[in-house]
Design the sequence.
């Protein structure tokens, strides 16, 4: 399910940041994600959200609050640190920073909605799936992402997308969240293109 609205695109050039969405736009996209999750999985037994650190877990917490308002019940939230599951772990710094996975509920038989901020190559999601399956056997795992920027290297597709952005391969999409960055926004950094 893709929930789209037209995103502004700026001129190609050097790596410059363009605010595609400010706080209001990000809040609107988050509300649409929560509505879509409620519509598709609200009646599912054992619905939980699991966010991929560092921003997917913050988004999952926000979505949980929105779902509680809509469903009239709490939706548990967990977070995954996928550092040890990355396929490029050997190429990280000599002492990579490994965070903590925090899931305070069993995954067996649950409907897990995996939450991330930006879907790009699919490698982050693959690592998250590997870790989730090492922790238990959910009845179902679905993927909800705030931004899908295309450029997949693995056959990964989100079940629910808040916004699709069409960007060039060298461009970068960054989600800013007030909890980490002091403000909410989606920034597009365009690389120089020939």
Sequence:
């Amino acid at each position: 399910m893709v929930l789209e609205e037209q995103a502004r695109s700026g001129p190609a050039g050097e790596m410059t940041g363009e605010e595609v969405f400010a706080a209001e736009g990000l809040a609107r996209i988050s509300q649409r994600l929560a509505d879509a999750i409620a519509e598709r999985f609200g009646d599912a037994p054992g619905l939980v959200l699991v966010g991929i650190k560092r921003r997917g877990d913050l988004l999952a917490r926000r979505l949980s609050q929105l779902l509680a308002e809509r469903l009239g019940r709490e939706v548990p939230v967990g977070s995954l640190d996928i550092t040890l599951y990355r396929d490029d772990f050997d190429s990280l710094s000599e002492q990579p920073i490994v965070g903590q996975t925090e899931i305070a509920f069993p995954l067996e038989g649950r409907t897990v909605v995996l939450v991330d901020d930006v879907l790009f190559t699919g490698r982050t999601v693959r690592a998250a799936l590997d870790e989730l399956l090492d922790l238990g056997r959910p009845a179902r795992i679905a993927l909800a992402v705030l931004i899908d920027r295309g450029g997949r290297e693995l056959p990964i597709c989100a079940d629910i997308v808040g916004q699709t952005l069409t960007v060039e391969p060298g461009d970068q999409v960054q989600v800013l969240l007030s909890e980490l960055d002091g403000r909410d926004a989606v920034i597009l950094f365009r690389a120089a293109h020939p």
Notes: The mean pLDDT is 88. Helices lie at 23-41, 56-71, 123-135, 178-181. The beta strands are 16-21, 47-52, 77-80, 111-119, 140-148, 160-164, 172-176, 185-190.
